[in-house]
Specification:
The protein is α/β, with parallel strands linked by helices. Helices cover 49% and strands 13% of the residues. Strands 3-2-6-7-1-9-8 form a 7-stranded mixed beta sheet, with helices on both faces. Strands 14-15-13-16-19-12-20 form a 7-stranded mixed beta sheet, with helices on both faces. The protein is globular. The two termini are 50 Å apart.
Length: 1033
């Protein structure tokens, strides 16, 4: 009997987490006698990029096991699974063949993909539409939901009264945010896993509960404010009866304080040191120009005055707390209504937001046993591999837990138990804001038990990424930096895991540059200087990265570096809204919907003025452009620039056809770039759901801020990205400007927290209040909430810094502020200042503190050399299947694409009619071509050489991806397995060319190495006649 095993790898940055996952995954594959054992393995991670990397590494290593004479991982696996090298080669070959031919069963998935699979399987039980659409962007739907609610004003008395009352409240408090914005913010709580337990309680309350509770809170506020006034009056009476006025007190502060309370002016009362001075009996009395007898009286009364001060403060803080609760009371009271409206909307529209996946899965897990879940999804997993465990949320873990327990505690038919393998690093937990919970990982590390299974902890502390001096710097730096953590448990785990064993060769360099406070331009200048120096020292542009904490810092850096010779890319530079061609299309769309908007005419003219270098005629062009109707404007554009758009197209073209017509009519097809390519994909996706231009413009308004074109990994340009985006990446040279942040978020950022209502006679248990320094003053519970938030922010800040400082392989430049005096709030600048001082150096804006080699030169490896034009992104968009080709020279290419679409739908002779109908409905072919198409297809499928290929009973793979080690995915047009042969077909149109045979030969040669059947390869030329050419390897 094989016992269950639960392993956790606590792995620091650069220690080979992915290697560990892949090694243990392959070890499990090879240790089982079943060559299809991979179907019982499930590997889960967080991003598609991580999924692709892990899949590639598994396939690549299996291929190396088969083909390489000396393979380090194979040697290690051989020692652990008790198989000799020959057995491993043979078994690896069988496993690899099975994976490649049943690739869908090779389950390395994102957590979202796995939960999606379960939701699809349980659609009926979850009362979801059978063909629901998964929506990733929640903002678009929330906009619609809040609009639906606001539209009910006047029709629904309850909603009307609540919103009118809230409007008056906002006016009274001078709150300038719109109701819609406030309600959209509060509606996002529905998707936040950290708010889940509070939401359950809030949703159990009725609107009447909220009304009665608010009335009770306001009654309490009135009572408490009146009590505070009475305490203040008592204090003033004592002072007055003893002949004491403002003049006896420093700045008259004592009298002014109590007078403000009497007038019920509570704002800002406790922003001075009066309480501290009263408690310490210091700096309260003004002793100059006052008689001694009055001074003595005043000094004797200080304890009593302090008592009234404390009593009044206690009452006023309750008033302030209720004021804070009132700010969000009505929005919070609408959460149930928003959630109900959202559910109705999703059911009607047959949509489900990806943010609700884990909540939906929770319903399944709570109700059904693990075996039934497996039965429904058609899989039975016994071995789990989970990456980046430190970022797993409570709900994600709760949903996985029953499946893991089943794997670990239930024997299979062979008397074997399953296993769980988790990998993570608590120091890289930087996703708390989306539900990630580091405490689960820490609990496992401390308790070493999961249900009834003992946990084996494996520490990986050897850094294999960075050179000696960089690892040494981080070891020394975090030994000091971890002391900034207030929470003892967080400090303890850092002490146990920050140190990394150095196995890298000598070398590497770290520079800390100090700049004067608030000199942001100096941060940028030093960044540019560092990049230019690195280039001189042998680093190529593609090996460099700039990492920042905030997006506005990335924008600032990008705008400055763009003016230099340094090639640079960032998320902002890749925003598709930056494209002037796309801005032109959007302006034309807006003008068609709102013909009266003259600003859009000006925007359209600006595009053509700039492209035609007509700046000196701009005034004349603008003046003429505003004359007449939209049709007149269209004619004006044609006469002036030779390009225009047809306003009538909007009446009879579908949305996607309209966009295509603009690209043609406005001359954009002559300079068709990556931005337009991506934009067309976006338009195509929208057109599958709607043809409403107004809806499109509304969607574009919210989406355009985040839509970016993808960039290949081999870009020969400096990259700018946030530290969050850089997680999991590495670069030879890294610059870290603006490393001066406070540990706590800026007070200007509105953050809220749930607050328990401990008042009597309240029906609602929780409200929402803003997080501020006030929070710790409302009582013991509020201080506990405040301290928890402060401690978690400190950990987030240090973890972000850890991720940033562990990305560099060879050289790292840190740019931070030199503070004139220490801040009360903990910050990065202070950490670097103290570190430099501890190392016997003086922080100086004129000279950087250098750690490691004085000179750091870098020799570019062969695989890091790039072509100069490699910045152009790569695409593989399915919109091309429908996109019209505007130039007549592209006719053959269009025909070739369409023929491929048609034959991709034909597996055997029975599919001909349905395939032709599909292509006609999709707009690939016209109805009048149906008879001609059928004749052409029959010529292919009944061709003497191809009859066997299209017979019933064969195994057919039409345009299926096959993963080839070291090459990537290949996709033959058709692979057919009969009982005696394997046929490979490649469809072509136009004339036969000699190099046509190269691709199909490549496919055939690879298939020959993994299939025992003889391979028959055909090039099928489909024109008016059909020619089939044998390809012999």
């Amino acid at each position: 009997m094989i016992k269950p095993s639960f392993n956790i790898i606590d792995a620091s940055a650069g220690s080979g987490k992915t290697y560990s996952l892949v090694f243990n995954y392959i070890k499990e594959l090879l240790s089982n006698s079943d060559d299809d054992h991979y179907r019982t393995l499930l590997a889960l991670t967080f991003t598609n990029k991580a999924v692709n990397e892990m899949k590639f590494r598994i396939i690549e290593n299996l291929s190396d096991f088969i083909n390489k004479d000396d393979c380090e991982m194979r040697n290690k696996v051989s020692q652990e699974v008790n198989l000799d090298q020959k057995e491993i080669r043979a078994k690896s070959e069988r496993i690899l063949k099975n994976i490649l031919f049943n690739y869908a069963g090779f389950d390395v998935l994102t957590l979202d993909s796995f939960t999606h699979r379960i939701i699809r399987s349980f659609a009926l039980e979850l009362k979801l539409p059978k063909s629901f659409e998964v929506v990733i962007d929640q903002d678009e739907i929330l906009n619609d939901i809040i609009d639906i609610l606001i539209d009910q004003v006047g029709a629904d008395k309850e909603i009307t009264k609540s919103l009118v009352d809230y409007t008056y409240y906002k006016i009274d408090k001078n709150n300038k945010r719109t109701i819609k914005d406030i309600f959209i913010d509060v509606s996002k709580i529905i998707f936040n896993e950290n708010d889940r337990e509070y939401l359950k309680k809030i949703r159990s309350n009725t609107p009447d509960d909220f009304k009665k509770t608010q009335m009770e809170l306001n009654k309490i506020r009135l009572i408490e404010s009146n009590k505070a006034v009475e305490y203040a009056k008592s204090a003033l009476n004592i002072l007055s009866s003893n002949g004491l006025s403002e003049s006896i007190f420093s700045n008259g502060l004592v009298i002014k304080h109590f007078n403000s309370i009497v007038k019920k002016k509570f704002e800002g009362l406790y922003s001075n040191n009066l309480e501290k001075n009263l408690r310490e009996k210091n700096r309260v009395i003004k002793k100059t120009n006052n008689p001694n007898d009055l001074i003595n009286i005043a000094e004797k009364l200080i304890p009593e005055i302090h008592k009234y001060f404390v009593h009044a403060k206690r009452c006023i803080l309750k008033c302030n707390l209720i004021d804070e609760l009132n700010k969000q009371w009505i929005p919070v009271s609408f959460i149930s209504k928003i959630a109900d409206t959202l559910n109705s909307y999703q059911n009607e529209e047959k949509k489900i937001l990806v943010g609700q996946f884990n909540e939906k899965i929770s319903e399944v897990v709570d109700e059904y046993e693990a075996p039934f879940i497996y039965e429904k999804i058609g899989e039975k997993y016994k071995h789990f591999f989970i990456d980046e465990f430190q970022d797993t949320s409570n709900l994600q873990w709760k949903n996985l837990k029953p499946l893991l327990i089943n794997a670990l505690e239930v024997e299979d038919l062979n008397g074997k138990y399953g296993s769980v393998f988790l990998v993570g690093d608590p120091k890289q937990a930087i996703y708390r804001w989306r539900g990630g919970n580091i405490n689960m990982f820490l609990n496992f590390l401390n308790n070493k038990k999961f249900n009834n299974t003992k946990i084996n902890i494996i520490k990986r502390l050897k850094n294999q990424r960075s050179l000696y001096e960089i690892v040494d710097f981080n070891n020394k730096f975090f030994e000091i930096a971890l002391e900034s953590l207030s929470h003892s448990e967080y400090r303890s785990f850092y002490k146990k895991s920050f140190y990394q064993e150095i196995i890298s060769p000598k070398g590497g360099k770290v520079e800390i540059h100090f700049v004067n406070e608030k000199e942001n331009t100096t941060h940028v200048k030093k960044t540019i200087d560092s990049l230019l120096e690195a280039k001189k020292n042998g680093f190529n542009w593609g090996s460099m990265a700039i990492l920042v904490r905030k997006k506005n810092q990335a924008i600032s850096i990008f705008e400055s570096i763009s003016k230099t010779e340094i090639p640079i890319v960032s998320t902002e530079s890749l925003l598709i809204k930056k494209s002037s061609s796309i801005s032109l299309i959007i302006s034309v769309l807006k003008l068609n919907i709102f013909p009266e908007k003259l600003i859009e005419r000006a925007n359209i003219c600006k595009y053509f003025i700039k492209n035609n270098h007509l700046d000196k005629y701009a005034h004349e062009i603008f003046a003429n452009s505003i004359k007449g109707t939209i049709n007149d404007f269209s004619i004006f554009l044609t006469k002036k620039f030779g390009f225009s758009f047809n306003p009538s197209n909007i009446q009879h073209l579908s949305f996607f056809e309209l966009i295509e017509s603009y690209i043609d009519d406005l001359g954009l097809n002559k300079n068709f770039d990556s931005y337009l390519e991506f934009f067309l994909e976006y338009c195509y996706d929208f057109s599958m759901k709607s043809d409403d231009i107004f809806k499109f413009l509304k969607k574009w308004e919210s989406d355009s801020e985040k839509l970016t074109i993808p960039l290949p990994d081999d870009t020969q340009a400096v990259r700018i990205m946030t530290i969050h985006k850089a997680k999991g990446l590495q670069f030879p040279f890294v610059v870290l400007p603006f490393l001066s942040s406070d540990f706590q978020p800026s007070p200007s950022i509105i953050r809220q927290v749930w607050f328990p209502l401990d008042f009597e006679n309240t029906l609602v248990d929780f409200g929402r209040i803003n997080i501020s320094s006030r929070l710790e003053t409302y009582g013991e519970k509020s201080k506990e909430i405040f301290d928890k938030d402060k401690n978690e922010n400190e950990l987030d800040a240090l973890n972000n810094l850890y991720v940033a400082l562990t990305r560099a392989k060879t050289k790292m430049v840190i740019i931070t502020s030199l503070l004139k005096k220490p801040k009360a709030r903990k910050n990065y600048s202070q950490l670097f200042y103290e570190f430099v001082k501890n190392n016997g150096l003086d922080p100086d804006v004129n000279h950087p503190a250098i750690f490691g080699s004085k000179n750091s030169f870098y020799k570019t490896k062969e695989d890091e050399k790039f072509k100069k034009d490699s910045v152009r992104p790569k695409f593989n968009f399915h919109w091309k299947n429908r996109l019209k080709k505007f130039d007549s020279t592209n006719y053959n290419a269009e025909k070739g694409v369409n023929i491929h679409i048609l034959f991709s739908k034909i597996e055997n002779v029975l599919d001909v009619d349905s395939a032709i109908d599909y292509c006609i409905k999709s707009g690939v072919f016209k109805t009048e071509n149906k008879f001609e198409l059928k004749n052409l297809v029959n010529k292919v499928i009944y061709h003497d050489k191809l009859k066997n290929v299209f017979e019933m009973g064969n195994k057919i793979y039409n345009e299926k991806d096959i993963l080839v080690p070291r090459k990537g995915l290949i996709r033959p047009d058709k692979v057919v397995l009969t009982k005696t042969k394997c046929y490979v077909l490649d469809y072509k149109t136009g004339k036969a060319i000699d190099n046509h045979s190269e691709q199909i030969l490549e496919y055939s040669n690879y298939l020959e190495s993994i299939i025992s059947l003889p391979i028959v390869s055909y090039l099928v030329y489909i024109n008016k006649d059909v020619t089939v050419k044998d390809i012999i390897s």
